[in-house]
What does this fold into?
Amino acid sequence: MKNPIVSLCFVFLWLTFSCSTEKEPEVESYDVVVYGANSAGIMAAYTAKTMGKSVVLIEPSQHLGGLTTGGLGYTDIGNKYAVTGLSRDFYRRLGDHYGKFEQWIFEPSVAKKTFQDYLDRAGIDVQYDYRVIGVNKEDGFIQEIELEKSGNPSADHRQVAGKMVIDATYEGDLMALSGVSYAIGREANSVYGETYNGVQLMTGHQFPDGIDPYKTPGDPSSGLLWGISEDELQPDGSGDDKIQAYNYRICLTNDPANRIEITEPEGYDPSMFDLLVRLFEAQPDRRSLGNYFIWSHMPNNKTDINNRGGFSTDMIGMNHEYPEADYERRQEIIDAHTHYTKSLLYFYKTDPRVPEELQEQIQEWGYPKDEYVDNDHWTPQLYVREVRRMIGEYVMTQANCVGEEVVEDGIGMAAYTMDSHNIQRIVIEKDGKKMVKNEGNVEIGGFGPYPIAYRSLIPKREEAKNLFVPAAMSASHIAFGSIRMEPVFMVLGQSAAVAASMAIDAGQAVQEVDVPALQEELKSNPLADGSTADILVDNDDEAQVSLSGDWEKMSRGGYGPSFLFAGSAGNNSARFSPSIKDAGKYSVYVYFSRVADASSQTHIVLGDGFEEHEMVIREEDVRVEGQTSGEWVHLGDFDFKPGTAPFVEVSNKNADGNVVADAVLWVPVR
It folds into this structure.
């Protein structure tokens, strides 16, 4: 028989040994932690790494590139003037792929390959499938973030520390766990003195009057059709916690060799589209898919399909829980949007209630074999247009968008329309009749590019001192609707990373960064690699532009704040003169904006500082594609030296219509 005392001693020693050898989870330490490998996060990580910082890039999903690789290939530009630095470089690298200077419409797989090239050149391996579940903060500084495996939450957690932290996600989850203030939904107009925030019952993407909302027309007791909310319309401009609709930017193809058929999704229920059938009946003259979808054509016979009209790809009102939902509930919402969208496509293709013309048009389309090959050829990225918005050191508002308030700490620009998709689908009463309406759509433009405050990327000092938030940044609902474009997110991601590097070097909190120095670094080193910067001379750069004759200034539709145009009469010329600091070969481009009654030819003289070169640009040489007001036209490659007097002169010599003078660009040949 064993001695019980010896046995107890053995157990004690075993337990002691076991406890002493069990290690605490190691903390991985970096200079910069970037959470979210969307467009903002990729550019942030790349920038920080090229500035000599140790970087980790963490992505909660298995998807690289966010919306830019998730189907949004028909880029929401606003004004190319606002797209700077690595963001502009990204679209030029896409241009390299497609044989153009810049490319703003593209396939998802090409965008993903381009992003991956940035990461490969910087030596950055994305840490996929890790999501944040906790943040440890001391004295306002984020010390560590805790991560779990997204696909296996019960696995061992990771602890990651960084001197600076960038939450680049659309959702702002790390920001929220850090105790930083944020907003969800729409502020009332009274909060920031705005006009287009809050509840807005407008005509865009709307149902015509008179469409009955009930399952049995005229009978409220029969219940509402699918997709209609029981909520009542609140006063115009009042605030709420509801968010604009999400959807998928759908990539299809009509190439038979690359096409997979649209098939019936599991759980398909055609009654989801009874309201759409009533919309068909109310619009008998609208028999094109373009009346019900924004059907944008991409290279290689593909699409970027977006929402259009009263009933389309937006799953209105079905996402309101998403911002504060846990990860499991969010996945349910994502799955519901996937089911809705695939069902919508199948409905158009097969349901006998779809007008014959529409059904015939969709038959040629299917899912592309060569896109999203790891996700059954369906995009893994839901278009989460708006989730949380930080309430930071400065809140961007409508006043910034329209130029009533101009910040001095701008570290990027935005230029898109103040845009909100519909937020709810409700029943209203008009002329004594109940009818269905969408509420929340806003599309207000007409303003030029405007600066985005550095302070809108950082929290209030008392809330966090080493955190940047470039995507879920600080803006009101309606201002965010103008800022929230993928090219801008790339700009803000780069700006955040430069500021983070500066803060590390100076041992500062993010609120103490020298903003003028940051602005100069972004301007002088736009690619974050020390290479020679482009030289842009815009018509608004009065010191570098000399005019002769009668030019008229237009404030909308050009490159930058304005452009000039002149008719064929008289002798009108505009000379753009750059300041060459670095000798070398430069590619020279002239920007041509769309203008009514344009001349079939434009006369140009280029002086390289030694001799003059005459050339004529014909109207058919200007190929304008996508959401843009114009296009760059290549004049050629020339050698330039400091101390000379190079120029490009645009004139109306031999013109037979209106001539444009807008901007000229000198790009170092690399």
In short: The CA atoms of residues 8 and 14 lie 10 Å apart. DSSP finds 13 helices and 33 strands in the chain.
